[in-house]
Amino acid sequence: MSGSARPIRAGSVAGARSKRRPTVKHNGMLPGFGLTLGLTTAYLGLIVVIPLAGLVLKAGQLGPAQLLAAVASPRSLAAFRVSFGAAAIAAAANGVVGVLLAWTLTRYRFPGRRLLDGLIDLPFALPTAVAGIALTALYVDDGWIGQLLKPLGIVIAFTPAGICVAMAFIGLPFVVRTVQPVLRDLKRDAEEAALTLGATPWQIFRRVILPPLMPAVLTGVALAFARGVGEYGSVIFIAGNRPGVSEIVPLLIVTKLEQYDYPGAAALGTAMLLISFGFLLLIQRSQRRSGVHGL
Amino acid sequence: MASDPHARDIGEPWLLRLVLVAGACTVITLMLVLPLAVVFAEAFAKGVGYLLSVLSTPDSLAAIRLTLVIAAIVVPANTVFGVAAAWCITRYQFPGRRVLVSLIGLPFSVSPVIAGLVYVLLFGLDGWLGPFLQAHDIKIIFALPGLVLATGFVTLPFVAGQLIPLMQAQGIEQEQAALTLGASGWQIFFRITLPRIRWALLYGVLLCNARAMGEFGAVSVVSGHIRGVTNTMPLHIEILYSEYDLAAAFGVALLLSCMALLTMAAKAFLDWRDHRQFALGAQAALVAPV
Q: Per-residue pLDDT tens for B233-250?
């Protein structure tokens, strides 16, 4: 097994951005390759690969007609529409709000900034079921926010709008935390130059700051979108869960499982898996092209 | 703070800054502070006495115990896995390395419901191994092993996600120096590597734990919702909530919220300690493989 491994040479490991130094020939490979690779592949195989393969195989057992019936039934199609539509709306909103938050938290100094910055991580740390019941309590008719919206004729809880609210909550940190490091590393020279040339703040933002920020914004939005599509816990409490109207795909999968429709659940699950797989590849491709690196 | 290069006084007029800061504060209050505040308000709505009585019912205690047991199994397992994975991915080059990184990140992009579903299809009554398990009277689905597996799937990337980018950036010069001086593999790991990654490791463990205790979708699918037996804290919240016992549901939610706040406080401390921003999601790091 260890025959196929090459030691990483000193000097070539500091990351793609650093210039390649003349490499010293090292044939001293660190010990532990067989052990760690064996452990890693065995664990990944047992926990992730085999179970996922089982899912795809289960869906593969169905005939094309059955597959189509499960994935393309009116109820399923409606659920896909709700899941993807709500996730897209929430991710787009997060794109705008996330840039605003990243900007103010990175560029300005004001009292309480650190506390607010720390709070951005709340949706990552708060269990989704807690987020779900908390958001529902806020947006029901007599909730803190719901009673303010009710006179305006806006109903959030138990409608598709509620799904967007939950997904926006869950996705918010992705955009902020992807944009912040890029914003922090941004050189200010160009801005200063634009300012001395008489550009307005909006022009500076639009023409100087936004272009280098855009890849990070898009990555954040894509991550928020992907998370929103798969989200279950925070959504089901506030959604109302009416089939065809406010039923998301993960809930439909759970419903099918509860009715012991295993093939149907497997078909839907495989469809979602393939979609999120394709989406992941897309994000990776665009990230590699734009040179955005991991946080 | 005054010497902070990011805070140099150029650009936007003060009125615009004021508006932007006020806007950011409003958004954070509406989207983040209020949901947290409402948990506290609703949990104490019927008084501290009721809250304590809710948390000390046998069902609640069983849910708390089960959640702790699951975390106690899943977190160490995923920690060992994360360290091993980071070691082999950042210390060697071999074919399939990128694929391995992508696979480790996969649970992040899979719906938690699917994480539960795959185990039902594998071990459930109608699943691939269902008949065998039934013949040997082994319970996985609707029992502790299923809950552990589903939670393990969902939380698998957290430790590895923190360690891989860090160990990649640190390089292996120090380890190789130790090797030429005759250190053994374990000596190198415990004396050289571990001290340099301990904060990121601790942070990954905290994140893994927070998610393990808070996971809902995946365990919901494999749990069967048997009260006092396969009911974790998040599932217990759902049951209490569907019974319209809001104060009780939010009481259990309060415990999990405190766990989340502690995790965030630890993150803030580690950020300050290590002078770097830990990536809480750890997601982007795995999406853009090294």
A: 999 999 999 999 999 999
The amino acid occupying position A52 is L
Of B24, B121, B277, the CB nearest to A54: B121
A219 contact B CB<8A? yes
Domain count, chain A: 1
- What digits encode the pLDDT tens for the residues A32-71? 999 999 999 999 999 999 999 999 999 988 888 888 888 9
ipTM of this model? 0.90
C-alpha separations of A160 from A31, A73, A152, B32, B240 in Å: 55, 20, 17, 20, 24
- Over residues B100-136, the pLDDT tens digits come to 998 998 898 899 999 999 999 999 888 888 888 888 8
A195 touches chain B (CB under 8 A): yes
Residue A261 resides in a domain = yes
The one-letter amino acid code at A99 reads V
**A124 and B280: CB-CB below 8 Å?**
yes
A25 is a domain residue: no
Which chain A residues contact residue B45 at CB under 8 A? none
Do residues A139 and A145 lie in contact, with contact meaning Cβ atoms separated by under 8 Å? Answer: yes
Q: What is the greatest pairwise CA distance in chain A?
A: 74
In a domain, A266, yes or no: yes
Q: How many Å apart are CA A217 and CA B284, to the nearest integer?
A: 12
